[in-house]
Amino acid sequence: MKKLFFLLLLHFSLVNGATHAVKAEGTVLAASAQEQVNAQNINSVALDTTYNEHPSAPSWLVIPFVLLLIMIATGPLFYEHFWEHNFHRIAMGLGAIVVLYYLLVLHNIHQPVHSLAEYIQFISLLAALFMASGGILIKVDHRSTPLANVLLLISGAVLSNLIGTTGASMLLIRPFIRMNRNRIKPYHIVFFILMVSNVGGSLTPIGDPPLFLGFLKGVPFFWTLTHNWPAWLIALGLLALTFYVIDKQLSASRDLATESTTYSNSLSFTGKRNFFWLLLVILSVFLDPNVLSWVPSINYDGQRISFIREIIMLSVAYFSYQFADPKALQGNDFNFHPIREVAFIFVGIFATMMPALELVGAFARSPEGAALINQNTLYWGTGTLSAVLDNAPTYLNFLAAAMASQGADINDISQVRDFAQNQFPQSAFQLMAVSIASVFFGAMTYIGNGPNFMVKSIAEQNGIKMPSFFGYIIRYTVPILLPILFMIWLVFFAFA
């Protein structure tokens, strides 16, 4: 159990660290991989020395992280009033404890800087998509039927690969609620989270943040489409079928044929100009200095940290709101509470999880840790941690561990590309396990993926009483999503 726990908390930092080559089996491929690693280790000695100057974080420093997760889970359930008025102070306070300890006691500025950079990239993308989509009012004048709902959910799942799960969620959640205004129930929102906010966006790097980070590290753009589509099709099909059966049964008591409302079956848009802002966000995703050498960057610890892309995204967030059609904002009941809640909650998560991930980093790269890594432990390990943490850094954790176990370095773009193209033993298969699990399991809890919290918040603002943190898990994801995830494991990974 101790080893499994450590496997679930793999190293998040961008340090190269000591890598461990697989035992040579006499093949040219293995020998070539070892030579690449040796060269990389020589080049990274200075970087490793910089990090090793600082003592490791003590084990008790994971307490703020655990405490924050517990409060996120129990706050809305047992002390809702206190939590609603103080969640931002709690998240910032617990995060400050960890960051100050790193700076003042460990004298380690590197880890907080890298975590801050990852957080800024994360929240810039979410804020831009939230603001831009909030200025687009979509009206679906169609009778709410199980089939119509399924078609909208599947369309949203496909769209999430083009504008991201956050963009698709923010664009469609309000029309979905309005279309079902006469019979909206919590399960409608839950399946929206499952299909549009998570599983749907597993085909492109734009779709979900962890895949986006993989693309930045060197995974080819169309790799996710060519490798993930069978699992995507099965999971999305099963979810759609399950929703249709549930929606059909629960709507049977209402005689839809007796409704007096006449529908035109039309689709109308207000605030079309904001589609330009959405397009600008999507294009800016590709302005990565690690992929395009001409893009300006901040060089820190041998890494090129992006800032031009984030400036563009934050500018889009501002201008898309300032120039949005007031009718669209009013029709969407637009306000800043959802993105504010996500920003504070996740700044606390990104800060407090640093020591937990650091403490087990050495184990993940050790021979004992490497021996535990295969497609099964990667799938369930990545998935379990993605359910209780943000799935973006979790993806990087397990990709780094999988590569290290085969003597490769996640900070070397060429090695990441080779790993994705199966130039290491079973490497593409392991990357597939990490990719699918990080996206699919992100739907298991409200905190698994950024859009989950925002969709929940928007639903509650529209008068929908959403299940609590534990209620969401016990009533929906465990009985509905978990069996599907288990089936995906059986079909693609268990017997490979």
Protein traits:
496 residues, mainly alpha, two-stranded antiparallel ribbon, 22 helices, 4% strand, globular, disordered N terminus
Quick overview of this protein structure:
The chain has 496 residues and is mostly helical. 67% of the residues lie in helices and 4% in strands.
Structure description:
- This protein is mainly alpha-helical and 496 residues long.
- The protein has one domain (2-254, 270-492).
- It has helices spanning 2-8, 28-43, 45-52, 63-78, 80-105, 110-134, 146-179, 186-195, 209-217, 223-251, 274-284, 308-322, 326-331, 337-359, 361-365, 367-371, 375-388, 391-404, 413-420, 427-440, 450-461, 469-492; strands at 137-141, 266-270, 297-300, 303-306.
- Strand 3 (297-300) and strand 4 form a beta hairpin.
- Helix 6 (110-134) packs parallel to helix 12 (308-322) and helix 18 (391-404) packs antiparallel against helix 20.
Low-confidence sequence ranges: 1-51
What is the total domain count?
1
Major sheet: 2 strands, antiparallel
Order of strands across the widest beta sheet?
Answer: 1-2
What is the number of strand segments?
Answer: 4
Oligomer: single chain
Secondary-structure element series: HHHHHHEHHHHEHEEHHHHHHHHHHH
Helix content: 55-70%
CA radius of gyration is 23 Å
Average pLDDT, all residues? 83
